[in-house]
Structure formats: C-alpha cells, structure tokens
Design goal:
elongated, alpha+beta, Alpha-D-Glucose-1,6-Bisphosphate, Chain A, domain 4, 8-stranded antiparallel beta sheet
C-alpha cells in the first residue's frame, strides 16, 4: 500500500517536473490573431469595444471595469474577472479602425498588448484582435500554449462581441 502511495506521489512530482521543463523550453513571447465578422457597422462595433465601463454587459467573464488615473497621459482602466484585476492602458486610439491596449502591471505572470483592427465588409465589420504576449512563468507558459491556447481569450471576447449583436459565430485564427 505504501509503495502505491509513493508511486502516485513520484508520478505527480514527475508530471510537474515535465510541465516546468517544457514551459522553460517554450519561448516567452508569442503572437496570435483571431478575427470574426459582426453584422454591425464599424462605428457601432467601435463604440461597443471602447465603452470599457460597460464590457460587463456583454462579456460574462468581466465582473466590473474601473477607470484608473491616466498612465503616462493615456487612458487606463482595470478590468476585473474571476482571475482578478487586469490593469490596462490604451496605447493607440484611431477611431473607428484601430486600438492598441497594453497590460500595465509588471507583477503579473503574463503581459503584452492587444491590437484591435476593424474593417468594413459588405456584411458588417471584420474585427481582428492580435495578441503580442509574454508569459513569464514557465507553468503558465505551458498552460497557455497547451491547455488554454494562445487564441482562447481572444476567441471568447470575439464570440461575445458577435452575441452582443445577436449572432452566433466562431472566430477564425489568422496565420502569423
């Protein structure tokens, strides 16, 4: 009986070791893009994406959003979700076609930026999000690559954006 318990413990320690080693071997930086077509004008879509205070009304993962003091003269806010606070700053703002947001907390296990690009389509607006991310913790790096996927959070946001306009559609991954 004791050898079985010892074997289970050794197996778990080994699995954790493999996760850490693989995570260490993965690059810290990654780039991933997803896009979706929404049946709304670029102006309507832009207004929804940039109305940070009301993201909780169409993004169920967001519990609230708080405006922060400007960061280096640029608008900033903190988005709260089940994982905790996510402080962000708007680096670029070119209505209604391009916005770049950036995580501003160096103490997090990840960081980077999201670039939102909106384009006209005869059927509405094509919204593309490109993540230029960094994952510092090797365990998180393993999880983000093999469990959640680099596109996971972007795809969720894009699906919820489509639902906001009464649609059910799946994002498309854009080759890098």
């Amino acid at each position: 009986m004791m050898w079985a318990i010892g074997g289970v413990i050794a197996l778990l320690v080994g699995l954790v070791g493999v996760v850490i080693l693989v995570g260490l071997a993965l690059p810290k930086a990654h780039t991933a893009s997803s896009r979706i077509l929404v049946k709304a004008s670029p102006e309507e879509t832009w207004k929804t994406l940039t109305d940070f205070q009301n993201h909780h009304t169409w993004r169920p993962e967001v519990t609230k959003t708080e405006r922060r003091s400007d960061f280096d003269g640029k608008p900033a806010w903190t988005e709260h979700n089940k994982f905790g606070p996510l402080p962000m700053v708007v680096e670029e703002f070119d209505p209604p076609s391009r916005m770049v947001t950036h995580i501003i907390d160096d103490g997090m296990p990840f960081g980077g930026s999201w670039t939102y690009e909106l384009g006209n389509s005869k059927d509405g607006t094509v919204v593309q999000i490109t993540e230029d991310g960094m994952v510092f913790n090797p365990v998180f790096r393993f999880m983000s690559r093999f469990v959640m996927g680099y596109h996971g959070t972007m795809d969720t946001v894009l699906k919820h954006l489509a639902r906001r306009f009464g649609e059910e559609s799946e994002p498309e991954h854009v080759a890098q």
